[in-house]
Write a structure and sequence with these properties.
The termini are close together. It contains 5 helices and 2 strands, in the order E-H-H-H-H-H-E. The protein has a two-stranded antiparallel ribbon. With 134 residues, the protein is mainly alpha-helical.
Length: 134
């Protein structure tokens, strides 16, 4: 069995993405670049950005589920409590990423999702994936 190092996998993906798109269509002065570095490097911005990603995942998943007929439009109201907090959005978007739209009715049931908790690695070795060839 082959062991796959996650750092190497992420590096391969990053290399395959190509160049990042610029976030500004015009030239920026050194002062503007410094201010943007302060803003984008801040923990608050990183939390904001992750929350925006979670919102987009929830929007896309839910709209797809409704458009494909796996969720009635009224089903959206059932998630209003779940999506009202950053923690609820994080949990729901994670479940949506790991599910298909065919499971939308199950995911959007009017129950509270389990709270996410930070996992603590048991072993001190770097994470890896074992590929099993069939």
């Amino acid at each position: 069995m082959e062991q796959l190092q996650l750092d190497r996998l992420v590096g391969q993906l990053e290399g395959a993405f190509g160049e990042e798109l610029p976030f500004s269509s015009g030239e920026l002065s050194p002062g503007q670049v410094e201010v943007l570095g302060q803003v984008f490097g801040d923990d608050g911005y990183q939390s904001y950005l992750q929350d925006q990603v979670n919102r987009q995942i929830i929007r896309d998943f839910t709209v797809n589920a409704v458009m494909l007929g796996y969720l009635p439009e009224q089903g959206i109201a059932s998630i209003s409590r779940q999506v009202a907090t950053p923690e609820g959005r994080a949990a729901l978007s994670l479940h949506m990423l790991m599910s298909s739209v065919e499971q939308a009715a199950e995911l959007l049931a009017p129950q509270e999702p389990e709270q996410l908790s930070r996992l603590k690695p048991v072993l001190k070795i770097p994470p890896y994936i074992k590929l099993v060839h069939s």
